Structure formats: C-alpha cells, structure tokens
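Case 434 in the screening queue. Each case pairs one protein sequence with one candidate compound; here the compound is iron/sulfur cluster. For every case the pipeline is the same: read the inputs, emit a complex structure as tokens, and attach any notable structural observations.

Predict complex for case 434.
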Amino acid sequence: MTLSPGVGPRPSPPMPADRPPTAPASFHVLAKPSGPICNLDCTYCFFLSKEALYPGDRFRMPDDVLAAYIRQTIEAETAPEVTIAWQGGEPTLMGVDFFRRAVALAEELKHPGQQLHHTIQTNGTLLTDEWCALLKRHDFLVGLSVDGPAALHDVYRVDKRGDATFAKVRRGWDLLQAHGVDTNILCTVNAANQHAPLDVYRSFRDDLGARHIQFIPIVERDNETGFQEGDAVTNRSVDPEAWGRFLTAVFDEWVVRDVGTVFVQMFDAALASWLGLPASMCIFAETCGNALALEHNGDLYSCDHFVEPDHLLGNIMQTHMVELVASPRQRAFGDAKRDTLPRYCIECDVRFACNGECPKNRFTVTPDGEPGLNYLCAGYKAFFTQVDGPMRIMADLLRRGRYADELMGILRNAPRNEPCPCGSGRKAKHCHAR
Ligand code: SF4
Ligand code: SF4
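Case 434 output:
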C-alpha cells in the first residue's frame, strides 16, 4: 500500500508547504469508490446517469487514489476530528477488503491527536456479518437508505429486475443493529410517500427503532443529461407544498413526544438557526462550497449534486485537494449561493433558517418574475413559519441552561382552553395538548 507521496504506482501531490489562504479550515469530501455503480436501480436516482461521464470505465477506485484521498483529507484538516466519508452508487460493491485497507491506511496516516470518523452511506442490501463486524470495529456511522414502510419504500427503490428491496434492506438494518453499529436513516421524500409523513416517521421510530433520521426531498430534473438543467421535474419529485406539510406533520408529532430521543437532522438544523448558530447543513448556510464529491478516479467535483463537467475542479492525483477547494472557482461556487439569492429571499422572514436552500433547486421564478427561486420555497416557507413558536421556546430553554425536551411538557400540559404555547393561535386542546 502506498503511504507516502511520491511512492507507489502513481505519485500524488504532497500538501503545499503554505496552506492556501482561501482554503476553509474544514471541508468535507464524499468519496465514491465505485462511482455511480449500484446493485439497485432506484428509479429516482440521479447518480445512475453519471455512468455516461466515464464511458467504458470499470468504476473501481484504485489503491493509489484511495491512498491520496485519505492522506490528503488528513493533511488538509485543521480540526482534531477528521471524517473519511464513503458514498455511491453503492460503496459496499467495493468489497470488505477495500474498506479494511482504507481504515488501516487512515490509522497509519493520522496525525498525533487526530480522531478519525468513518461514515458510509449504503442501501444495506449487501451487508453481511463480516461487513457489520468491520463497521462496528471502526465505529463507522452508517447511513441506510429507507423510504418508509415496505409499501412506500418499494415504489421507487427496486433492484435491476424491478423487484422490491425492502425485505433485503430490513435484513441489513437488523444485522447492523445486532452488531451495535451506529446508524442513521436517510429517507427521500418523493411523490409516493409525501402524503404519508406519519406512516413514514412512525415506521422508522417504532418498527425500526431508529434514533437518527434525515429527510431528503427528491427534486429530480426531467432532462436527458441527468445534470442540473431545465426547469421541469419528473413526476417522482416531491411537490413543494407537500414537502412543507410532510415536515410539519412529522415535527408536530416529534415535538410532543420525541424531543431528545429521536434526532431529525432538519429539526436540529432549524434549532441551530433559531439559536443564531452557524448552519449545521450546507443547504441552509448562507454560502457553501465546502462539501465536495470525489469520483473513483480522483476527479474532484464542487458538490455531490454537481458531478458534471462544468463543475469538475481537477484531479487529486495531479493537484492536492486543499488547492482545489481553495481555488477561485470553488470559492465562487460557494459564494454564488449567497450572491444569486433573489430579492424575494433576501426579504423573506425565514431567510435566517432557509437561505434559499440548495442552489441545485433554484430554478423557478419569484412571484414578481425574478429567476432563481427555490422550487421547494412554498414548503420551506410554510414549515419554518409553522415551527417558529416551538423553536423559540426550545432556543429560550437552551439559552437559560435548560433542556430542549422540556418543551414537550410545556406543550402537552398547557391549559386546554388557553392558546397553545406554540403560537398557532388555536386553543391548546385543538393543537399540541390534544
Ligand atoms: S450545492 Fe447544495 S448540496 Fe452542494 S454544497 Fe451547496 S448547498 Fe450543499
Ligand atoms: S422560504 Fe422561500 S423565500 Fe424564504 S428564503 Fe427560503 S426559498 Fe427564499
């Protein structure tokens, strides 16, 4: 295994002697060791079309790119915690030995005082006891893709033959739990499950026993290229209003019984905004550009959602990733999130929490015709407006050194005929004290 720059099948560039001044102190690179290749054929997947970017390729990360990714990530990080992140396609297609080499190399290369965090996102269908033992031994955080109970999950998450996959995913989930692996459910919200928020949420909380959940809206452009082009979306995409109703319905259940025991990434991110803290998700930050995607061959792209030729920054076998992240091109990519915000967003009451969300979804026009409004705007506006009252209460509790979960008692025990403390204007008995 190549451990040093300049040694091995192909050398890769060393860390520059002077850190580029425009390099962020921390950034995040999601590596795709098998490129977009997957054993499933989820109908909404935006990666599958990326095969066309590398015609004839085997899509397997060679060991010299693996070594460069890990070494450069460790060298570039200024914080004591370093995250090595794997995604796909389906990264488990690389086999257990690839990841054994990856963790061994990371352990060998880490600097004194650095702590490694390994993460992997998977569809879970290929997991075995051998896999789970490795994931547990190295404290991987495993993101498992599940779209709800079987009937909803299986609408779009199918295998190459078009067959349902829920049973295999469930098997993978059970294996992970049996081994005590840290897990996180990644649930896309799409046209099939958008109207069943509580069925989806409760299936995770009650059937799977999940404690960490992420909801990801499917906004799939309807075009031939698979790139972020055009303003039409497929009929699998979530409806903007339904997205807002989905989040709000889950929030209303969570806020009276699950605060502090179930962690929904979107709600944690919102609470950070109400506390005036830096955004914990790039989509809600004022600027972005610090979450990049690494293809199997070392090509580094501006973002996982922009793996397309116009956003190829370079290759880490030729240029150290810290220089690519610091490049004027990548800084401009990140600043554009703020600089292209339409006036409608600038004047929006919930901009502090939303910031126009992700640029990939900004392809509609504002009511007065300005381009660049987020397709999901109506949903976010409704959701952030609706949660304002409870968020204020939780933020106030935390500022006073109390606990956010005290909110549940405040809402549930409110005098039934008085206005609900959430600020909805409804009597408590018709709102959160039902
Ligand atoms: S383009 Fe979207 S997903 Fe990518 S870094 Fe920016 S906000 Fe995050
Ligand atoms: S809710 Fe809509 S108007 Fe407000 S910041 Fe978000 S996208 Fe812009």
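Case 434 observations:
- The CA atoms of residues 346 and 355 lie 8 Å apart.
- The longest helix spans residues 240-257.
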